[in-house]
Amino acid sequence: MRRILEHPVLDPPKTRNEVAFRFDGKSLVGYEGEAISAALFANGVMRFSEHPKDAAAQGIFCANGQCSQCTILVDGVARKACVTSLAAGMDLRTLKGLPALPLEGPDGAQGRVSSAVPRRLSVDVLVVGGGPSGIGAAKELAALGLSVAIADDKESLGGKLVLQTHKFFGSEADCYAGRRGFDIARELESQLRASPKVTILTNSPVVGIFEDGVAGVYENCSAYLLVAFRALLVAAGARERSLIFPGNDLVGVYGAGAFQTLVNRDRVKAASRVLIVGSGNVGLIGAYHALQAGIEVAGIVEIADKINGYKVHADKIRRMGVPIYLSTTIVSAEGEGRVERATVACVGADWRPLLDTARTYEVDTVLVAAGLSSCDELYRQAVGYGLLAIKAGDADEIAEASSALFGGRIAAFALARTMGVKVEVDESWIAKREILKSRPGERIAREAVRPSASWRPVFFCDEEIPCNPCTTVCPTKSISLSGRKGNMLDLPYFQGDDCKGCGACLSACPGLAVSLLRAVGEGRCEVELPFEFEPRIELGESRLLLGAGGEALEEAVLVKKSFNRKYRTWALRFNASSANAARAIGLRVQGSEATAALAEPRFTYAPDDAIVCRCERVTFGELVRYIRENEVRDVNQLKSIRAGMGACGSKTCAPLYAAVFRAAGLDPGAVTTARLRPLAVELPMSSLAGLEGEDARAKGARA
To answer: Which of 222, 238, 497, 656 is the 20 to 30 A CA-CA neighbour of 62?
Structure first.
């Protein structure tokens, strides 16, 4: 079994009921109620279907119900494995081609349409999405006296916070900086559930918005609910962006968010060795999550000439043994039915790969962390109908989760004011949101630290980012920001001599960028380092100390180790030379063998074969030729060759069309955009029709 039973940060998984099920006739065991995809991954099954067009193998891509790549036959009915719960005795089968439509109901009898009408609910505001922005908005709206329903497609609120095992940046007072995402999610959900004005609909995706001011909700993934609203607030977050490269459709190529879902929520070892494409915070954190789950990381490739995420994130990944290759792109992924190797190459001034620089890595997974696309379709539908609607969080603008909290609150006040509530937004919220979503600023050179007989912190953050928990956790208030900009973008500095060596700043730092230092004798120092892995080292043993960027310093002996339960962070104290102690900040987690390329590159480069429309398997080359030959100026025309006509409703391929039109020689801005479908999410026709007798094991599934 490929279960993650031990994790350096996550609590041990709760005891769950084991149930037996079958996959393609083979008896397997999983946990009752977990996603079918998780149960299959845990049993080593990653191939879920074969496409009807060419029998190509398909597996997970988003793990979020947004695409259709994980569709599987569940007791004879096509379901998405990532959003369908496992039940005892299920008969699961690889979906080969198009499933046959059953002529009878799942209980063997003819389906009967009930006379009951769908349940109805009326509220002042319907909030779509239970992530940080949706929770923040719902809480403020309820406090203003408005009745609110918040609908989310997951079983618990928190959005992507639920998947985050790292500590958050920002400020402790405003956005829980220093705390881990899953802890923040629990806190926010607890606060919202305390409000009597809020109806919480979990495991209940909003499937459509209609012009009479009513939303269709697939309540508890089992029944159709109609919610009438005066106003709509869409905080549905964002979805993974795909990338165009040969082999991008292979089993084993999936989004970084899907990877986080599998390893951090579902606790399955989703890979053995991964290559990550994209150096934004999502890609950098993805590497960190992989290492915590015991998965090797061959490297991170970034097509730009600089890292897109925070430098402290990149630095800690490098010193853990993961290289980051700039001005480098993925050339192809290859394998028999699933990823077995991936090839990368440097890019020239035109962003095209220089194939003579290609190198190939043996990996079983490629994580795509190339950005996100806003999930704002329901907002656009509502506006098109003339309904009162607003959007917040990533549905409005892609940014850090810390800024989404303020974005939701600000949107709530703007919406309430439009609805006639006399209220003014706190101007400080707007300022804080702008700071929290800031791109990294300047890099400030720090002076070398001279060790003394007293403890003192050493800071390795030299880039202006929104972060200040070290200043608030220090019990002696000896750490303060520089004041250069007058906000939390300023760098922290130690002021004075009053450091107790408690390690609070070290443990709370989200970037693992604070050490503690003191001199203990002639030419010797003790240095205490943060560590978020299981420290497989005993007192008296030595390890190689590393500098901020991963450079080797010296072997040093461990003299003490302690664990901060609040921040779930180890402090490892070493005795080192004075020459290196002030420069030491980390230890290597994986060896160089994990990042070695094959002696000779092994790949085939055929960019026209890259898949754009995953559902209908329409390639980049097919689309470019069709646009040129037919003088296409309207995205809707691409439906003639089936692009955008699949089960995902073009959610995955639509963000790629700009690159396709540019390759065809057209300005994407001059092309008519695609029309939205009436329903944004699929659901069984039986739920819409009120069909009785549906098998209870299929409840919780979306066809």
So the answer is: 222
